[in-house]
Write a structure and sequence with these properties.
69% helix; mainly alpha; elongated; two-stranded antiparallel ribbon; 3% strand; single chain
Length: 327
């Protein structure tokens, strides 16, 4: 028997070759690499810094000197004087009293701002809350191009050539998934480094080992999301179809999660949607691993959900690829 006809490339070998091609396309384009670095910087720098929610409670918003405007002399009626008794009236220095009240009110507002931010966001500055949420947003924007990529390969004829070889269909799908995952991990690293330089306040429980947990959470969500985007585009020959799907689901995914705002402050009907949104669990896990005190039970729940999400949708993607991924 001919030895060549018996040759069957292993899943790992085919996956490695296809993944190398995907990464080569990306790394050999310096403009694309720069864009991948600039994208999170622009989002985080502009959006994270412009949405200064903590500033809403700042004394700069309200001119307290106009609110507390007392006359130069403030008479105190005799019926409010307790000690010493018998005085008919007491005169106070209104200007000095205004200064004392203003100082006390400024201190109270500053304390109130920290309490509200800590209670609502878990941290005292919105930039830290927002910049960690940017990682989830970047994972979505990176994985959504997996579907576009497979349509593009079909139109260029590359997909047909690969399908005519003994390479496993699973290797074709997972090369797209792993490509998106590695790119998301790269951007997450860039985001954390830039955010730290711009003022991200890490929790005392953060250690470099936590980065492994962050990468693991990104891997699980990337596998699940990429499988969804690929499954939707697996039979398509038109670029418009995956783009329409991306447009349809991306914004609802992001705004029905805790990327920008805590779930507990949302309306009840939106909280139900957020509780099944996988972005919520990725964002939650990364926040516990970076800016919030470590809560092991909460992190375990996040990883359990992300693991189920990745398992279910990667299995669906695999079944669809065996059935519908044809030339």
């Amino acid at each position: 028997m001919d030895v060549i006809n018996e040759y069957r490339p292993s899943l790992i070998r085919g996956l490695r070759a296809l993944l190398h091609r995907e990464l080569k396309k990306w790394l050999k384009d310096p403009v694309m690499v720069v864009m991948f670095v600039l994208q999170p910087l622009i989002w985080m720098g502009l959006l994270g810094k412009s949405l200064n929610i903590g500033g809403l409670f700042s004394r700069n918003i309200i001119d307290l000197s106009q609110v507390i405007s007392l006359p130069q002399v403030v008479p105190i009626p005799s019926d409010v004087i307790i000690d010493p008794p018998g005085l008919q009236v007491v005169l106070l220095n209104g200007t000095k009293l205004s200064q004392v009240m203003l100082a006390n009110l400024n201190s109270t507002i500053s304390s109130l701002s920290s309490m509200v931010m800590q209670s609502a966001f878990g941290v005292t500055d919105y930039f830290s809350f927002m910049s960690v949420g940017m990682i989830s947003m970047i994972v979505v924007t990176t994985t959504m191009f997996s579907g576009v990529s497979i349509v593009w390969d079909r139109r260029l004829g590359f997909l047909g050539k690969v399908l005519s070889t003994p390479v496993s269909r699973a290797a074709i799908i997972f090369s797209k998934v792993l490509n998106a995952t590695l790119r998301a991990m790269f951007q997450a690293t860039v985001i954390l480094m830039l955010a730290y330089l711009l003022g991200l306040q890490l929790s005392p429980s953060f250690t470099p080992i936590n980065l492994l947990g962050i990468y693991a959470a990104i891997f699980l969500l990337s596998v699940g999301l990429s499988s969804i985007f690929i499954a939707f585009s697996i039979r398509s020959t038109k670029m418009e179809r995956p783009i329409q799907f991306i447009t349809l689901v991306t914004m609802p995914l992001m705004f029905s999660s805790n990327i920008f705002f805590p779930i507990k402050l949302m309306p009840e009907w939106l909280q139900i949607i957020a509780s099944i949104n996988p972005l919520t669990y990725l964002t939650d896990a990364i926040r516990y691993l970076t800016i919030l005190p470590m809560d092991l039970s909460a992190v375990m729940i996040d990883f359990l959900y992300l693991g189920l999400f990745a398992s279910i949708f990667s299995t669906i993607g695999m079944i669809l690829s065996w059935r519908y991924l044809t030339m």
